[in-house]
Amino acid sequence: MEPLFPELDTPAFAGLKSRLDMLGSMPPQVLLLDGGSENQRLAAARYWACRCNCPSARELGRPCLNCEICSQIARQEYLDVPAYDGRISNKQDDEEPGPVRALSIRNVRELKGLLKDPPHGAGMRVVLLMGLERNRSESANALLKALEEPSQTTVFVLLAAQREQLLPTLVSRSHCLILPWPDPEVEEESSVRKDLASDVQEFLRSGKRLMGRTSQKSFDAAQAQTVISILQKSLMRVMAGHPGQDGVDSLLVRLSPLHLTNVSRWLNDAQGKIAGQITPGRVIDALMTRLYLLIAEASGRQV
Ligand SMILES: [Zn+2]
Fold this sequence. Notes:
The protein is of the alpha/beta class. The protein has two domains: about 5-180, 3-Layer(aba) Sandwich (Rossmann fold), CATH 3.40.50.300; about 190-300, Zinc Finger, Delta Prime, domain 3, CATH 1.20.272. Helices cover about 50% and strands about 10% of the residues. Helix 13 (about 255-275) runs antiparallel to helix 14.
């Protein structure tokens, strides 16, 4: 039988699942899931929703992942697990209303109305919230207020690539769980990625080499994304307090927490610019130069 959450079906996720299972006996009002990939975060959030709703969960200490409720949650059909994404525009939502809705004022009002009523089923309502990091709208603020109101029947799950992207007040209110890092042996290590990784490291050390690459016509958005992903993964390891011995990690550990938070923002900005069709090589050049200077300064190197 196909597993309900294939994204979590590797040994690396066993620890996360057992932590969610344990939390289920006393669900925190707000759970924050970061790290991993977007699909893994969503699967983990839905697994959590199963833990909070599966009729056998109390007895088993985990969701059965076999019953109709668990299946409906995995298929995004369960009424007590509404999902909202700040990255979906109102227009998109109107034209193609899917199981994940936009954070429009109308939808938030609807949700707040819903929160006044008990859940449809016998379990808990689990509200999934994504794309909050880029959303400072009135509707997002209205929604955040709902998180502060304690409820016996509703819990929230925030999903973000990195918790540093969210408002600190939100993070401090949350029970945070970090998803495991992709297994380096399983993860596809293309030769391009390896070359880029060593160039990134070399540039951050010496200021040389990468510039030659980014000025080439062949340096496209995909390669730029790979550079950002290399930096993001390294940053996440360093921020989580388990940096690797060498590579980019050994350079980023020299930065203060404040600097690391800034770097996290730069990476997001750069990603947005690449998506916004600015020449990828230029975006990466600017990003890498900033990062190089910051590391040089933190290392007490003469620039
Ligand atoms: Zn079940």
